[in-house]
Amino acid sequence: MMAADVKSQDISADMVEASTDNSYVVKSASTSEWYTVNVGDDVTQPFCSCRQFIKQRVPCKHFFAIFRHIPDVSFASLPTHYRDNPLFVADDECLSASAAVRAESGASISAAADSPVDLLEAVPDDDDTEVPEREKLRDRLARECRELTSLIVNYTYDVVSTDSLERVKVVLADAVAMLQSVCPATGSLPLHTATEHAMHVDAPGLRAAEVIGN
Predict the structure, then answer these.
(1) Could you read off the pLDDT of 47-93 as tens digits, one per residue?
(2) Which ranges of 114-156 would DSSP assign to H, the alpha helix?
(3) CB 188 within 8 Å of CB 3
(4) What's the CA gap between 13 and 22, in Å, rounded?
(5) Distance between CA atoms of 56 and 23, rounded to whole angstroms?
């Protein structure tokens, strides 16, 4: 989500308009298209008509543009049933850190403006840069992982077998531990994928390979 927050800096205040109490329209930073954004309420999910949100279901740059330019609207304005999704439970400290990063980013841009280096050359647009094959592979694998986790979330609402859920929890606990061990310390919004209680596994000797093998 940090990437979406950074990209939202390209969207100015005049490109964000309120439609209703919970709905807004946000203009694309690169085209003439306007996107419809709804922050949701107690009975409806947040929504944006852009392709990224429809595919990933996490706040996109259009949400962050609203958080940036609309007073009293922030990540905390999203409904609790959405914010408490186990895929991302951002705590207050993380959100405060995000605000601090935005402030530092603004200061960096101001300093760079006085430099003879062209910002567009220093930070080329993704569309104008040839992405290395390894990075393409990384993006594809990351996207497939997100798609799988989305399916897992959907299935957990319907599965009634406690044994199956326990097995899935063991696998996910191992997966989270592995990802945390290789996740960079900076560069993205810190996310809590599970609390210590949720990460506790009643059968600590049972590893993911053993579960899959069964």
Answers:
(1) 999 998 998 888 999 999 999 999 999 998 999 888 887 766 544 45
(2) 119-122, 133-156
(3) yes
(4) 17
(5) 20
